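User: Please look over both lines:
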Amino acid sequence: MSMSVLREKVKVNQAIGALTDQIQDFDQKALVCKTQAAILRFAVEIESADLIAWLQRQDHFPKFFWADREGQEEVACAGAAHVLTGKGRMNHQFIFDEMQRRLSPDQEHLRYYGGMCFDFQNSDENWKDFGSHYFFIPRFELIKQKKQFIFACNITREEFNQGLLNKVLADLRKIDFSSHVLPARLPKIQKREDYPSDKKWQNIISEELAAITKNDYKKIVLARKSSFRMSAPLEAADILRNLQKVSPHCFYFYLQPKAGAAFVGASPERLYKREGQTIQTEALAGTRPRGSNPQADEKLKKELLNSTKEVHEHQLVVEQIRHVLAELCKDLTIDPKHSLLQLEGGQHLLTRIKGVLLPPVDDARILFVLHPTPAVAGWPTEKILDIIKSREPFARGYYAGPLGYIGWDAAEFAVAIRSGLIQKNTLAVYAGAGIVQGSTAKAEWNEIENKMQIFLKAIEL
């Protein structure tokens, strides 16, 4: 059964009824067919809808939101038809094999959404709801692709076979398609704490620069966490909506496994996008803020493009990705020279990379070897990861981890940087900087402060 979309649009207030009719009219005799997909998908095209407002109104968990950097697609998900999660170290091949058992070429629009920890394992109390990885096929999806809006419901074969359909239909009737937008609730900042402190940061960077001088390694990316205690609980949807305003042209994401902690962000960085056997990725490293006027902006742009330190940091990322993909791809194409990605919150050196995957390379293999890149870890990666753990006084959790989706013949992941963890009235914001020869503690502290500004602006709107 392929994605079934009514030929004519239905009004938003008719979406639940139209989808209910589709499900009830489904010929359950088709389930005996051995080739029938494990997940059945029912969908209707509807008139336009505000996806974030829709997601905010729903009581079903988990919740997920995804929007690509090009503005071509947005997806809001509520509830789950199937979940893959765990607390121990992630076994890539097992997890992705489990996904492929339920995905099908007959269901080209069916996807698992979610992500994983930066280091593929999780033992931190603040991230307990997320596990080391969290992927799910949503029960309900609201999708915007260009100017088309789709409302979908996914149901497992087991739910049909075991008489659980009434529960699914009851949950469907609870979906709230009312048109009102809940008022934003943006409390004030009462207290801020930085991990590490400014003084400790200076000591850490001094020691790391000494190690780099001794050629122990060439680059290390160290992150900071700033924890903001607010005057009242934060609503993740409000932060997400404001991030779209203050930081356009990014990947936007929101993952909330259950009522409680929510992970939200606006990342400029793609880890990879796969369409069939074609893969796209990029090196995004080397940063300057934006100027307060055109003249200042042009000056900062020239500084970035001509900075020996920033170009060196960028090339380390390019060479590592080249090395990894050379083993996975044929016809590898790399931009001959870096370009500039200019965003509201900063400007970055960018090199695009594209290739054709060699069979039988799959997403499990790609993620295992590509993440983490030197843009969020350092070089050489194997040596750096243990040092990061010993240096950073907090667990990264899903910060800088892969987050996105996987379908039967396509996948896309962003690097979950410029992100924050919301827990009631606390917002923990994460950002990092690459330390190489020529770095200074003050400059890297200021770079991270600049990266964190998008969250401060989102709170203050």
Observations:
- The two ends are 45 Å apart (CA to CA).
- The mean pLDDT is 92.
- Residues 189-460 form a domain with the Anthranilate synthase fold (CATH 3.60.120.10).
- DSSP finds twelve helices and 20 strands in the chain.
